[in-house]
Amino acid sequence: MPISSAPRTARRTLCLLAAAAAVVPVLTSCAGAGHATTQALSPYRAVSSVSAAAVDLTDPRKKDIAMQLVSSAENSTLDWKAQYKYIEDIGDGRGYTAGIIGFCSGTGDMLDLVELYAARKPGNVLAKYLPALRKVDGTDSHTGLGSNYTKDWATAAKDTVFQQAQNDERDRVYFNPAVTQAKQDGLRALGQFAYYDAIVMHGGGNDPQSFGAIRKNALKKAKPPAQGGDEVKYLNAFLDARKVAMRAEEAHEDTSRVDTAQRVFLNNGNLDLNTPLSWKVYGDPFKIS
């Protein structure tokens, strides 16, 4: 993976959430290529200290803010909807990276996406690549894909059925599990976003650089609100643990999406992720009014 000064550098670990992972109750991971096994989200019941007046990340406006924040780090733009057509090999060993959340041909989630698209629209322009996608899963190979595949991906990206499939897979594999766990931990919108951004980059589960490991390491330092802890103290511990995980992989050495974005919001006491928001990623300034 290239260094993080270029767009699309913030990629999660090779291990992916399994295609069979349920939306609400599980986060998953694997130790190698292919699909994962499931694991319980948390031993704690969904007890939340969130104020009834607070709006969580599932609110459409808040969710759009989350998408823009991730896009600023992943694509160097706030226009996340322009990324349906995005596809390239960024040299990170995961094959092609594509779409609004960086689905990868080498990690299973691109295969899941194209399978969903084929189920919803049989005979679509990408369906013919399913055998090749199954063969390259777990590798960085382009065998059976190549330039024709990237052209057809761009064509498919104009189809609202494919766009919705990308939205739904993003939510099923990344957004919904992250927000569910954050709400179980009693975290408000900022904490929910911190979890989501971590799962996007690192994947779920408990391997050393995964979201599960980051959360586990944070819990060693502080308790979340659902366990009677202080939310700010816990989120600082989580972001500290996140930086350790990022620095363990060369491609993630730039931790500005934590230092000059999420940590800024936290230091400002903006636990509900209210606008206006100003932050920097890789030195580039962004603002949501």
Structural class: mainly alpha
Number of strands: 7
Radius of gyration: 18 Å
Query: What is the ordering of alpha helices and beta strands?
Result: EEHEEEHHHHHHHHEE
Proportion of beta-strand residues:
5-15%
Weakly predicted, low-confidence segments: 1-52
Mean pLDDT: 84
Distance between the termini: 33 Å
Helical content stands at 40-55%
Shape type: globular
Strand order of the largest sheet: 3-4-5
Main sheet record: 3 strands, antiparallel
How many DSSP H or I helices? 9
Structure description:
- There is one protein chain.
- With 289 residues, the protein is mainly α.
- It has helices at residues 60-74, 109-120, 130-136, 146-156, 160-184, 189-202, 211-221, 231-247, 256-267, and strands at 26-29, 37-40, 87-89, 96-98, 103-104, 277-281, 284-288.
- The strands form three sheets. A three-stranded antiparallel sheet has the order 3-4-5, with helices on one face. A two-stranded antiparallel ribbon has the order 1-2. Strands 6-7 form a two-stranded antiparallel ribbon.
- Helix 5 packs across helix 6 (189-202).
- The relative contact order is 0.17.
Strands, helices and their partners?
Elements: E1 26-29, E2 37-40, H1 60-74, E3 87-89, E4 96-98, E5 103-104, H2 109-120, H3 130-136, H4 146-156, H5 160-184, H6 189-202, H7 211-221, H8 231-247, H9 256-267, E6 277-281, E7 284-288
Antiparallel strand pairs: 1-2, 3-4, 4-5, 6-7
Structural descriptors:
289 residues, 9 helices, three-stranded antiparallel beta sheet, mainly alpha, two-stranded antiparallel sheet, disordered N terminus
